[in-house]
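During the second year of the project, the team shifted from modelling isolated chains to modelling whole assemblies. The rationale, set out in the original proposal, was that interfaces cannot be judged from single-chain predictions alone. As a representative example for this report, we include one of the complexes processed in the last quarter. Its constituent sequences, exactly as entered into the pipeline, are reproduced here:
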Amino acid sequence: MLRIEKLEKSFGQNKALAGLSLEVARGELFAFLGPNGAGKTTTIRILNGLSKFDSGLAQVDGLDLTKKPLEVKRLCGLVAQHTNLDGELTVWENLDLHGRLYGLKAAQRRQKALEYLDYVEMTDRADRLVKTLSGGLKRRLMMARALIHGPRLLFLDEPTVGLDPAIRRKIWALIKKINQDGVTVFLTSHYIEEAEFLASRVGFINQGHLVTQGSPQALMDNLGQWAVDIYDQDNHQTLFFAQRHEAGAFIQSKALAGSIRRVNLEDAFLSLTGRRVS
Amino acid sequence: MSAWLAVYLREMLILRRRLGRQVLAMSVSPLLYLLTFGLALGSSVQVNGHAYLEFLIPGLAAMSSMTQAFAMAGEINVARFYLHVFEEFQAAPMPRLAYVLGETLAGLTRALLAISMVLLLGLIFGVKLNYGLAFWSALILNAVAFASLAVAMAMLVKSHADQALLNNFIITPMAFLGGTFFPLESLPSWARSILSLLPLSHASKAARNGAFGLDSPLSAYLYLAAAALIFIFLAIWAVSKARD
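Output from the structure prediction step:
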């Protein structure tokens, strides 16, 4: 569905993408994980025509982004990291204008707006001005808007950033539903638990290039099942064990102050890059 | 092909919600100019055989068409830098021309509203002139030129603060030097030559001639049409520069 090869992008002296290559298969829910400034948003902006790139190749469904930009855009939907709705317009007007931008006929726009308002459970808010909605509702509306024209590939840039945990869970359920309905999802996040919960495959990006990729479980299994965090004055060290009793025995044998927990994707990222995602 | 309409409708929906405030804001400056220059200073002045108020109204209409059309730049910048709505347009499968067309037509609509307010104020002040095709053509071309220039500038500036600078250094001087308040013929020839480069000078002259029932110079319309065309191409180019 999505193919990126040796993508490069610089902002002055700062190299945002340094030869990024990755592929996302049709129907996947791919999470792109990395710390702030790693190149996640730059990648999404390039793939949606908001930024230019210096060199490399980007294809969606076999269509080259530089040669067929409008056709590629028609296949994609974007939910940006920040709210980019028209606050002075109503929910319905925001959806209708999006439909017009993508060339939908009046009857289609009406049908799709009704369908996706129902999908995100906002039918009763169609006539509300967007500026009166909560952050969670705005995020759901942005998803409905991004789906109205029937994209095959949906980009979600930090879809739950700034939302409280309860709303975040609702958004996660919605993302799962969208993916189960056949839309390929490309998600960026620096919330580890978000990627663990949602993604069928994860890619780690650091300093503009892909460090590794694989299923969340496979990436974590490379380290072991259990982690021991040891705090020694200013130092924090994490060690990994296949079995819980091995981890417990280690702490006892060393007479150290430490805590045992399950290995997570943050550990996998940290072990590969020396940096934390979040 | 409905994408340009989406851009235009968005601006119109916003304008409709703010219509009262907007009309009031559009009327303040012309009203002040009419009171100060027209009534207070101009009551004893005649220009080319016309009362100064009669001279002033077409000039104010031309100036308002310019300022209100160019005010689109501010709206676009708010959409670009604060609301991020511009990203929605960038991500949409729409040619750059569609975006430029939608915003330019929105600027033209605002300009037509502003011109109507000036003419209404003129009527209230007892000024009745000939607002026919020659008058409106000049002002429509002027508005299209400045609306498309607004799109171009809004794409090229890096922040909203830069936009304010453009207004201070380009639009405000042009408003005072483009033949709104005094006949350019009264200036030395070197000054006339420089000021004849301003599209507003041509718009004021053509609109005023039209309003007075005189022959309007074809060159003025051609100049305005050429300016509009150049600024539209500049805007189309600038939209692609706005990426990043």
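Residues 224-262 of chain A form one domain. The longest strand of chain A covers residues 14-24.
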